[in-house]
Write a structure and sequence with these properties.
The structure holds 3 protein chains of 3 kinds. Chain A contains 1 helix and 10 strands; from the N terminus they run ββαββββββββ. Chain A is mainly β. The N and C termini of chain A lie far apart (71 Å). By secondary structure, chain B is of the alpha/beta class. Chain B contains 12 helices and 12 strands. The longest helix of chain B has 16 residues. In chain B, helix 4 packs across helix 12 and helix 7 crosses helix 11. Chain B has a domain of 137 residues: Thiolase/Chalcone synthase (Peroxisomal Thiolase, Chain A, domain 1), CATH 3.40.47. In chain B, strand 11 and strand 12 form a beta hairpin. Chain C is mostly beta strands. Chain C has one domain. Classes of the chains: A mainly beta, B alpha/beta, C mainly beta. Chains in contact: A-B, A-C, B-C. The interface between A and B is large, with 43 and 39 residues.
């Protein structure tokens, strides 16, 4: 029997059409996005957690009391991507950032649109920009991006 | 006559007596996971002069998401020989946690020998998309952030707080890959100075290519023995005298990314600071994370960090953390170290951390 | 503080489809079996320790954990060790129900694999039934078990269950 040197490979796609129930807390956040606003929730000692969680991540205490935050905020940290991946939120250069919205005590992960890396700094003020009302569906992408306040 | 050191956690002393790994490669095309594992399992047994009949408990670490098929880890048992039926378990995590589960099992008292193995082929799929699925499915995963961008957020936070510079990151990369030239199992080994590395483009600022681990296919295996029987297997078993695992919040925005409180806490409970540390093998896939973790572990500048080259030289997912334990154990077993620290991480940007202290018997 | 939600119903569901592309690698041993199918034959491997023949080939004996390098070509004839009558329709189904899937023990093999039974009414299929593989036309053969269309009765006398009990 001849030793085959060929090892077969096969393209394989794994695909799931997940449809998730979000519950009242994430639901409130997504509903807020659909309305063009960002919603947080009060945790232990009244600190405002964004995105809202059902429990305080540090103490485990139940959270309650939704709070509108933003639309302005501060960049807590960032990373400039000059060559975005195909599945990135942008096809042109952009920054990922953790943004702490005004009124919030924790930061939200999202995109900062800027013309170049030089414009983005930790501590810079940004403003949330949403998709047009008709395009908003109640998901994180309703929040289109953050823009630097000097240029927005 | 040596006596096994008493551990800080649990009641039975447990030691690493054998460790083996496959040479890590970018793409192991000829072999599937079982064929990749078989020689590694064979070697780990041979070194210990043991067979599958000596093993009481088998535990593996892998993730079906790398191969794209459910229960793929069950197929890997073909490499192990679980007949007559054995007590067996699996963690959908790095095999360092399979070691932790095995350590817990051995504490029960009725099992004495555990075989641990981990494997992963990152070459089969799009690793960044796969790892994005470990993120919050409602608010983060739909944006498909990749691991390099997320790690970059952490690196930037370190720079902003004055904890490190891009030059420091390059220093870690330069040293690691140079050390890897002495490691036949390493995938990326070269001798490039910091100035050369700093000329590279950013992938996601402030991380350049040299700050990022390679994509790797690989596998590793290990044998643990409880009690004095370990001395029958090797002259200098690597005794686990402390071990602990802590986890931080899932959301990045509630964490201080420039520090690792879970690592600091686990290190304290495991007793890292209670003696000199000759060698530390740190599971820091990104260059800045070695600086962060060495600080979180409370290590002094006299500790040799990742003499194996670390994850920057070879990063087979699901085996990389176990390899840190194995490399640290090898330093004890070959006599170059008396006290070592092994660290493994899991989850996005160092969310969970496992720390252990390994010691030679006095 | 605001927790007032507007006139629209609050969001209760989120659609998060995922799609991941992979390059599945069969590995050396399974590729031998796949090449076998492309050549119109069943290829297995024998364990050097327990001497059992595994088909399709996997590269290792799951009992002894040693590489299985010795290649064995198996005939087209086999025994049905057990079977199932499928009555439940499912999405993407191409075979008319009811149909029979069976555990096929090729002559000379020590483990079974799943195969489709045709050429016999569903209520006449039985344990011990002797069958043979019907392959697709030569030009359609490929490195896939789909090269085997189905198994059909040979007409030989049934095998006694006692002769294959250990394979159940």
């Amino acid at each position: 029997m001849a030793e085959p040197t060929e090892v077969y490979t096969s393209a394989h796609v794994l695909e799931y059409p997940y449809s998730r129930s979000v519950g009242p807390v994430i639901g409130a956040f997504l509903t807020g996005l659909r309305e063009g606003k960002i919603v947080g929730i009060r945790g232990e000692n009244g600190r405002v957690i964004v995105p809202p969680t059902e429990y305080d991540p540090e103490t485990g205490a139940e959270t309650s009391g939704f709070v509108d935050v933003g639309p302005g905020g501060v960049i807590e940290t960032w990373a400039w991507v000059e060559h975005p991946r195909d599945d990135a939120p942008r096809s042109t250069p952009f920054a990922w950032a953790l943004v702490r919205l005004d009124g919030a005590d924790t930061a939200l992960l999202h995109v900062v649109d800027a013309a170049s890396k030089d414009e983005v700094t930790t501590g810079a003020r940004v403003t949330a920009h949403f998709l047009d009302e008709g395009e908003r569906q109640g998901r994180i992408q309703d929040l289109c991006c953050f823009q630097l306040e000097e240029t927005s | 006559m040596s006596t096994a050191p008493q551990p800080k956690q649990g009641t039975r002393p447990v030691a690493i007596v054998s460790f083996a790994q496959a040479p890590t490669q970018r793409r192991i095309e000829q072999a599937n996971e079982v064929e990749l594992l078989m020689p590694v399992i064979g070697e780990v047994y041979a070194q210990a002069n043991m067979t599958k009949d000596d093993v009481d408990f088998v535990c593996s670490g892998s993730t079906d998401y790398l191969i794209g098929g459910p229960f793929s880890f069950v197929t890997a048992l073909d490499a192990v020989g679980v007949w007559p039926p054995k007590r067996e378990s699996h963690v959908e995590m790095d095999a360092a946690w399979a070691l932790y589960e095995s350590w817990v099992q051995l504490q029960e008292g009725d099992l004495d020998v555990a075989l641990i193995y981990g494997f992963g082929k990152s070459s089969l799929g799009d690793l960044q998309r796969i790892l994005a699925l470990q993120l919050d499915p409602y608010t983060m995963a739909p944006l498909w952030p990749d691991q390099v961008s997320l790690a970059a957020l952490q690196a930037q936070a370190m720079i902003d707080k004055g904890l490190a510079t891009e030059e420091d990151f390059a220093g870690v990369a330069s040293r690691s890959r140079r050390d890897a030239m002495n490691n036949p199992n390493a995938q990326v080994a070269n001798d490039l100075d910091v100035a050369t590395l700093l000329k590279e483009e950013y992938i996601a600022s402030p991380l350049r290519r040299h700050c990022v681990p390679p994509l790797s296919d690989g596998a590793a295996a290990m044998i643990l023995v409880a009690g004095d029987r370990a001395f029958d297997v090797v002259d200098r078993p690597a005794w686990i005298t402390g071990i602990d695992h802590r986890i931080e919040a899932h959301a990045f925005g509630v964490r201080d990314l420039a520090t690792s409180p879970s690592t600091t806490k686990a290190a304290h409970i495991a007793g890292v600071g209670e003696g000199d540390v000759d060698v530390a093998e740190i599971h820091a896939p990104f260059a800045h994370q070695e600086i962060l973790l060495a600080s979180a572990l409370g290590l002094s500048s006299t500790t040799a960090l990742n003499p194996s080259g670390g994850p920057l030289a070879a990063n087979p997912l699901m085996a990389g953390g176990l390899i840190r334990f194995g490399e640290a154990a090898n330093r004890i077993m070959d006599g170059t170290a008396s006290r070592a620290v092994a660290h493994a991480t899991s989850g996005p940007i160092l969310q969970q951390n496992l720390v252990a202290v390994l010691e030679a018997a006095s | 503080m605001s927790d007032a939600l507007e006139i629209q119903e609050p969001v209760t569901m989120l659609s998060t489809p995922i799609r991941l592309n992979y390059d599945f690698t069969a590995g050396v041993a399974q590729s031998r079996s796949l090449r076998g199918y492309a050549e119109g034959r069943f290829v297995g491997q024998r364990c050097p320790v327990c001497k059992k023949v595994y088909v399709p080939s996997r590269g290792s004996c799951p009992v002894d954990a040693v590489p299985t390098k010795e290649e064995v070509v198996l005939p087209n004839t086999a025994t049905v060790t057990t079977f199932c009558v499928v009555n439940v329709p499912f999405a993407g189904q191409s075979i008319e129900i009811p149909y029979i899937t069976a555990s096929i023990l090729l002559d000379g093999a020590d483990i079974t694999f799943m195969g489709l039974i045709q050429g016999i009414p569903a209520d006449e299929v039985r344990m011990g039934l002797r069958v043979e593989a019907v392959w697709v036309p030569k030009e359609e053969l490929g490195p896939t078990l789909a090269s085997v269309k189905y198994f059909q009765p040979t007409g030989e006398p049934d095998r006694e269950i006692s002769t294959f009990r250990e394979h159940l």
